[in-house]
C-alpha cells in the first residue's frame, strides 16, 4: 500500500478550495483525456457521461478526498460505493495508471502552472496512488469472493 507523505497531504488539503471551484472542469478535462483510450471509454455508461453526472460524481469524490486526506475513516461509505461500481464495471488494477495519466495533466490544464506547479502535481500523484491502492485492494478482494 502506498501512502502519501505528510508534506503531500498538506499540499493536497491546501488545494481543496481550488478543487471546490474547478472540480467539474478538472474531471471533464480528465474524461476527455481518458476517453482517448478506447478500452477505458468502453467501460463507462454513456448516459451518465453525457448528462454530466459522472464528472460531477468524480469531482465530488476528489473534493471529499482532498478535505479528508488526513481522516480517511470519513470516506468509508463513499469508498464502498466506488468499489461496488468499479466491480460492476470490471475496473482492474491495470486501469489505474490510465486515470492517473489523465487526471494529473487535467489538474494542470485547468488550474494552470501557477496554482498547480510540479510540487502540487507530485503531491496529487502521491494522494492518487494512496486512494488507488485502497480501492484496488478492496476490489481485488471483491472479485475473489
Ligand atoms: C483513485 C481513482 C478513482 C476514483 C477516485 C474513482 C471514483 C469513482 C466514483 C466516485 C464513481 C461513482 C460512484 C457512484 O456511482 O457513486 C466511479 C465510478 C466508476 N469508475 Fe471510478 N474512480 C477511480 C478509478 C477508476 C478507474 C481506474 C477506472 C477504469 C478506467 C474507473 C472506472 C469507473 C467506472 C466505469 C465507473 C462507473 C460509472 C459509469 O458507468 O459511468 N474508475 N469512480
Helices, strands, pairings?
Blueprint: H1 6-14, H2 16-34, H3 38-42, H4 46-50, H5 53-68, H6 76-89, H7 96-115, H8 118-144
Helix pairs in contact: 1-8, 2-5, 2-7, 6-8, 7-8
The structure holds protoporphyrin IX containing FE.
Please mark out the parts with pLDDT under 50 across 5 or more consecutive residues, or reply none: none
Q: What is the CATH superfamily?
A: Globins
**Shape label:** globular
- Tell me the span between the first and last alpha carbons: 21 Å
Specify the CATH class: Mainly Alpha
Tell me what the CATH architecture is: Orthogonal Bundle
The small molecules bound here are: protoporphyrin IX containing FE
Task: Write out key terms for the chains shown.
binds protoporphyrin IX containing FE, 145 residues, Globin-like, 0% strand, single chain, 79% helix, mainly alpha
Can you walk me through this structure?
There is one protein chain. 79% of the residues lie in helices and 0% in strands. With 145 residues, the chain is mostly helical. It has a single domain, classed as Orthogonal Bundle (Globin-like), CATH 1.10.490.10. Helix 1 crosses helix 8, helix 2 crosses helix 5 (53-68) and helix 6 (76-89) crosses helix 8. The mean pLDDT is 96. Protoporphyrin IX containing FE is lined by residues 40, 43-45, 48, 54, 57-58, 61, 81-82, 85-86, 89, 91, 95-96, 98-99, 128, 131-132, 135. Protoporphyrin IX containing FE (HEM) is lined by residues 40, 43-45, 48, 54, 57-58, 61, 81-82, 85-86, 89, 91, 95-96, 98-99, 128, 131-132, 135.
Amino acid at each position: 500500500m502506498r501512502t502519501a507523505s505528510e508534506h503531500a497531504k498538506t499540499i493536497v488539503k491546501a488545494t481543496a478550495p481550488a478543487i471546490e471551484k474547478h472540480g467539474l472542469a478538472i474531471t471533464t478535462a480528465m474524461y476527455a483525456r481518458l476517453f482517448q483510450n478506447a478500452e477505458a471509454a468502453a467501460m463507462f455508461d454513456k448516459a451518465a457521461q453525457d448528462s454530466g453526472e459522472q464528472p460531477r460524481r468524480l469531482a465530488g469524490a476528489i473534493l471529499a478526498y482532498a478535505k479528508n486526506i488526513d481522516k480517511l475513516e470519513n470516506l468509508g461509505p463513499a469508498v464502498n460505493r466506488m468499489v461496488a461500481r468499479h466491480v460492476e464495471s470490471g475496473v482492474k488494477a491495470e486501469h489505474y495508471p490510465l486515470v492517473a495519466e489523465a487526471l494529473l495533466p487535467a489538474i494542470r490544464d485547468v488550474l494552470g502552472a501557477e496554482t498547480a506547479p510540479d510540487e502540487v502535481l507530485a503531491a496529487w500523484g502521491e494522494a492518487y496512488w494512496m486512494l488507488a491502492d485502497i480501492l484496488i485492494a478492496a476490489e481485488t478482494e471483491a472479485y475473489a469472493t
